[in-house]
Structure formats: C-alpha cells, structure tokens
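Sharing a chain and its predicted structure for anyone who wants a worked example. Both blocks are below, sequence first, tokens second.
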Amino acid sequence: MARQRMTGRERREQLISIGRAAFAELGFEGTSVEEISARAGVSKPVVYEHFGGKEGLYAVVIDREMLALEKVITDSLETGSWRERIEQAVMAILAYVEEETDGFLILVRDAKPGDERSFSTLLNSAVGQVSYILREAFEHRGIQPDLADIYAQALVGMVSTTAQWWLDERSPDKEVVATHIVNLCWNGLSGMEVKPKLGGK
C-alpha cells in the first residue's frame, strides 16, 4: 500500500520536530539544511519552501520554546501563598528541563546577542513577575517595596542558574534539588531584616 502524502501542515510540524532535535544535538552552527532534509527524508527545497532556510526554522523552534516555558513560569506564579508560588515555579522549571530537555538546551545554549526572543528576555519577564509579587509582600513587612527588583533578580538568577547546572547533572532528583532551592529562597525571604547591613552588625 502506498504511503499517504503528508499535508503541508503535517510536513511543517515534522520539520519543526526534526529541526528541534538537530539544533539540540548539534547546535545552530552545526546544523545544516542538508542535515534536516536528510533526517526528514525530503529534498532541501522542501525545507526552504516552508521556512526560507535554517534561520527561519530555528526562529520558529525558539519562538515555540519561549512561549511554552513562559507559560510554565507564568502559570506557576499565578496562585498560592508566597511559599507555594516559589515551590511551584522551581518545580515547574526543573520539570521543563527534565521533560523538554532539547528545547531548554536550545534556549540556554544557542541564544545570540541581540535576539529579541531569548532565554535572557524570558528571565527578565520572570523577574518582572516575581518583583511584582515581592513588592506586595514587602509592603506587608515594612520593607522598602522598590528593593523588590534586587531580590527578584537574585531569586530568578539562582533558580535559572541551578536549572542550567541540573540540565547536565540530573542528580539528585528534581524534587531534592527543588527542596533545597526553596529552602534557601523561603528562609532567606522569611528571615529578612528591614535594614540589613554588611558585616552582620
């Protein structure tokens, strides 16, 4: 029986999936249209027809990955107590690293300076959300709300750097890693001094 031809949409999705795997394995520079077309079992013109070349395909892969991770972060910060939101966000990011390794790898490894959509722009968006949440908490505690930006940068930086480290390590389990990140974040926040000083004085 003859194999049914793919529709244009199916072919496009196939190329995106194959491109994502190739970019994760070989990097942007190491991936060629030849490589993608060979993996897909199509001629090079098919790739050009759908995406105009490697850059176009890469842009679609990055955009999809950004939207997916952005949703994961935003959803995790939406509801719950302060501690629950921290736990949800940390677990959500580590689960994304575990389940969508190829996508996370592409985001953190191949971003180019000046890209409008990159991992660093995603982190800036997360900083904005965390800062907004912290401002409210700071007002309740009598801490200057405009200091929230500093703490948001520190918290998001800590989580994202640990997630990138865990991308390669994968040990201990994500639940253990999350527990210790939350321990540091939460106890740091709950034990904050209104007027901290260096030297512990």
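Comments welcome. The radius of gyration is 21 Å.
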